[in-house]
Amino acid sequence: MLQRARVCVEGQSMSTQTPASTTTDSTPAADAGDDLQRSGRDATATRHALVRAARRRFATDGYRATTVRQIAADAGVNVALINRYFVSKEGLFEACMLRTSDELDTQTPPRPADVEGIIARLVEHVVNAPDGDDPLQLLLLLRSSGDENADGIRRRTLEHFTKRLATAAGWSPTDPDTADLMLRAQLAIATMLGVVMLRTSAAVQPVASAGSDDLDAPLGEVFRLLLSRPV
Amino acid sequence: MLQRARVCVEGQSMSTQTPASTTTDSTPAADAGDDLQRSGRDATATRHALVRAARRRFATDGYRATTVRQIAADAGVNVALINRYFVSKEGLFEACMLRTSDELDTQTPPRPADVEGIIARLVEHVVNAPDGDDPLQLLLLLRSSGDENADGIRRRTLEHFTKRLATAAGWSPTDPDTADLMLRAQLAIATMLGVVMLRTSAAVQPVASAGSDDLDAPLGEVFRLLLSRPV
DNA sequence: CTCGGGTGTAAACGCATGCTGACTTATCGA
DNA sequence: TCGATAAGTCAGCATGCGTTTACACCCGAG
């Protein structure tokens, strides 16, 4: 190892970030080449830019098809910095996965339950797939790096997300009546992932060009069927 | 191009195939290394073995992560024969995709409708995912090679499958009451793909180890909700 | 027998990839 | 002001990839 080798998630802990970067959060940015012309010399911003670019590339193109040079170019950063800050390509992927895991955590409630609200948010995620970064992070959960570490994180993230969703829908480890909610919540997640996949990666019609008006109703039905308790 | 460059699907048109190959069809064969110790000198059998091995590799590991040497080793065949018979790795992928497209075609009825029967078959496909070759071919539909040709075939296959399923469920291009069935059929396909993905690629619990008893009911509900006309 | 084409083999080529180590440049406290 | 250290740059290495080329083998037709 070189020096200290800090493979951190650099998530909610950073505060003084993004200098000279106008597109910080939820701007569309359909083109892959933003983050350019940064006024360097800011390690935190550099790491952030790398993770941002990497998440997009990994999610859309997959792990193997993405090259570190592409990521570095997208982030407007020298290639060697990937190895400096994340040790390896796989370390960067792991950081992306951890970040997605954290974001997913903050977006799903820990314990209580408001099934209709949850359903609405799930649908929103799927529908907004082509734009923004939020739905792409879902596709990241389907991408395998082939490495034990990163894929373990991926599996645990999906299982944790499942438990969160099932809990929000009323699952309880003690109540045998809610035992199947775990599996049902996971089927809902599988549906989400499948739809996002078809919409973005494969661009299959008609679902790829379907809007909120077309998708809200059937998706809501499916999620309601899976997550609402039959009283 | 070298000589004639026949990139054929070699599907239903071959009859005198598989000499000295005991495991021809639906044997489990969870290990990746069958097809070995072939008694060479049979181009048809060689092509068949290559496609068989390639489909498994492409479906499980993805296009980029699969190497031609792996495929050749799985098929018990020299690497150069891939280029001889399929011109390139991408040509082999295209042949795999075409074969999947054809098999999917023969398995879905062309016009009539027996929704319950269709649903039962869809569920069967998903549940049997870890074993056999049938469900793996579904994952192939999610894999992108990055090439225009193969990915076009993939998109068209998915769209054709959508139309088949919607038609079987009662969709008619003239009847406006059935207009949304197209999208609903595609959501059903997305659900299938998502579940198979979670079961095989990510091995996420509890869906990965769920059996027919656990999956039949909720999956049937979802497919029925999406495909059955509300009278 | 011999010839020729179909089949399989072995070795290597060119290239792109991930990664490394030595170097330069900016930043900031003493 | 100045040097120590962090931040970034550059050229190149080693490897694995897809592909190609040249060669050996088998077998039926003439």
Work out the largest interface and the residue count of each chain: A-B, 46 and 46 residues
Number of domains of chain A: 2
Q: Which word captures the global form of chain A?
A: globular
Order of helices and strands of chain A: HHHHHHHHH
| Number of distinct beta strands of chain A | 0
- Through-space gap between termini of chain A: 57 Å
| Helix content percent band of chain A | 55-70%
Determine the number of helices of chain A (DSSP H or I, runs of at least 4 residues): 9
Multimeric status of the protein: homodimer
How large a portion of the residues of chain A is in β-strands, by DSSP E?
under 5%
Uncertain regions of chain A: pLDDT < 50 for 5+ in a row?
A: 1-34
Task: Describe what this molecule looks like in 3D.
The structure is a homodimer of 231-residue chains. Chain A is mainly alpha-helical and 231 residues long. Chain A folds into two domains: 1-96, Arc Repressor Mutant, subunit A (Orthogonal Bundle); 108-227, no CATH class. In chain A, 56% of the residues lie in helices and 0% in strands. Chain A is built from nine helices and no strands. Chain A has helices at 43-61, 68-75, 80-86, 89-107, 115-127, 136-140, 148-168, 181-202, 212-227. In chain A, helix 5 packs parallel to helix 8 (181-202). The relative contact order of chain A is 0.12. Chains A and B meet through helix 7, helix 8 and helix 9 of A and helix 7, helix 8 and helix 9 of B. Chain A binds a DNA duplex (30 and 30 nucleotides) through residues 2, 40-43, 46, 67-69, 77-84, 88-89.
